[in-house]
């Protein structure tokens, strides 16, 4: 694990409200600190504020009140371009719906962030193929998403998320569209990623079994954190990696 005194993510007194006729409060006075190398499950029912919290942490939205700090920097004070660069290089993002471009092959999807960052085509493809090999999906590297199973598409999506070796991986219901066996494979792959790279993982889920793959569980209800629990046995296992 990286020994860094500055938490990778700090949420300080955050409130997020929306005005749709009447004001709706999605998050209310939330405080959350996430250290480097932690695996944290963000749990709660639909409407509890999970997705809102994730959007604030990755800088897709800014809080109505309070601060969201990434590696000590306040995301709300950055320009849109700066927040985009942080998401591209510092945060790998995995979605329930995969979000692969249907006209691109697996390797082209994985290489896309590199190409957007100015990396030459040949170098980008070489790095993408190496990452695809790491996640065990080489046989589908040159296939388009519609020629892949759900689990294969999610592996390509994970390879894309990891292409910059980001310190943080944000996974929004990554097993939600997968059968239980394939979902277990994806959760095991995320554990391998954590073991190899020491990546901080935030797993947004309503699935109890998926949450068991994390040593810390944060539960939201009506926009508030109502529980923040750490499994010390899993923490011990993580620290021994």
Task: Give an overview in words.
The protein has a single domain, classed as Rossmann fold (3-Layer(aba) Sandwich). Helices cover 36% and strands 27% of the residues. It has helices spanning 50-57, 80-90, 106-116, 121-134, 150-161, 180-197, 208-211, 232-239; strands at residues 9-20, 22-34, 39-43, 65-70, 73-74, 91-95, 168-172, 200-204, 216-221, 224-230. The strands form 2 sheets. Strands 6-7-8-3-9-10 form a 6-stranded mixed β-sheet. It has a 4-stranded antiparallel β-sheet with strand order 2-1-4-5. Helix 3 crosses helix 4 (121-134) and helix 3 packs parallel to helix 5. The radius of gyration is 18 Å and the shape is globular. The relative contact order is 0.18.
Outline the secondary-structure elements.
Elements: E1 9-20, E2 22-34, E3 39-43, H1 50-57, E4 65-70, E5 73-74, H2 80-90, E6 91-95, H3 106-116, H4 121-134, H5 150-161, E7 168-172, H6 180-197, E8 200-204, H7 208-211, E9 216-221, E10 224-230, H8 232-239
Parallel strand pairs: 3-8, 3-9, 6-7, 7-8
Antiparallel strand pairs: 1-2, 1-4, 4-5, 9-10
């Amino acid at each position: 694990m990286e020994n860094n005194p500055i938490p990778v993510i700090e949420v300080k007194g955050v409130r997020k409200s929306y005005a749709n006729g009447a004001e709706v409060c999605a998050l209310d006075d939330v405080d959350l600190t996430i250290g480097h190398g932690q695996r944290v499950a963000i749990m709660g029912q639909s409407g509890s504020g999970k997705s809102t919290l994730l959007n604030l942490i990755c800088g897709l939205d800014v809080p109505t009140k309070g601060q969201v700090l990434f590696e000590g920097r306040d995301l709300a004070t950055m320009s849109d371009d700066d927040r985009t660069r942080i998401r591209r290089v510092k945060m790998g993002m995995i979605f329930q719906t995969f979000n692969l471009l249907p006209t691109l092959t697996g390797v082209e999807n994985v290489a896309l962030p590199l190409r957007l960052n100015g990396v030459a085509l040949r170098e980008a493809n070489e790095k993408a193929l190496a990452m695809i090999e790491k996640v065990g999906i080489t046989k589908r590297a040159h296939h388009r998403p519609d020629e892949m199973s759900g689990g294969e598409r999610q592996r390509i999506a994970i390879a894309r998320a990891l292409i910059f070796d980001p310190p943080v991986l944000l996974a929004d219901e990554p097993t939600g569209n997968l059968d239980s066996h394939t979902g277990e494979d994806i959760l095991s792959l995320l554990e391998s990623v954590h073991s190899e790279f020491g990546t901080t993982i935030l797993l947004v889920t309503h699935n109890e079994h998926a949450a068991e793959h994390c040593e810390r569980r944060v539960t939201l209800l009506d926009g508030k954190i109502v529980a923040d629990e750490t499994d010390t046995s899993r923490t011990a296992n993580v620290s021994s990696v």
